[in-house]
Design a protein that fits this description.
Layout lengths: L1 H50 L1 H23 L2 E5 L12 H15 L8 E8 L2 E11 L5 H4 L5 H10 L13 E10 L3
Antiparallel strand pairs: 1-4, 2-3, 3-4
Amino acid sequence: MVLLRAFLIFFLLINFSNANDLLSYEKQSKISIKELAVNLKKSLKGVLKESGPIAAVEYCNIAALDITSDVSNKNNIFIKRTSLKLRNKNNMPDRWEIDVLNNFEKRKKNGENVMSLSYQAVYKDNNKSFYRYMKAIPTGKVCLTCHGSNIDPKLASKLSELYPDDNAYNYKLGDIRGAFSVKIPLPN
């Protein structure tokens, strides 16, 4: 009985520690996503306002991955944007991300608010464990300039030039345009 009680206390302490770790990873993920979203939006809106949508697309083509990389390096995590309908092949979703994005679509269909869609899990890949977190990106009004169905012909031409395999269009306000995805390696 004493041995069972000691095991139970040990088990509860381990799980409490893991729960605190998960909360810490979740907080780190949310902070990093917010930082990335703010930096991308601020930069893109600035270029859009100053120089128009074609210049914004050219800027985004070069700067978005750099901004994302800066946030990853600063926060010592891996973060990216991904989607089921890609514009940039560098943002290709992995199997886990595809499953989560499909789950987000189902949840949206069932009435959940896109702004609140997120998912987290501990995931094993090649005998390594990772904390994974995703947050849906809702399609806003400004997004429709480059991701909607009525894209200016000159802008559409520039998008085709920069992204020959582009599928990130025909979105409507409130659609799930993609998600932020965070991956944090866990200690073994």
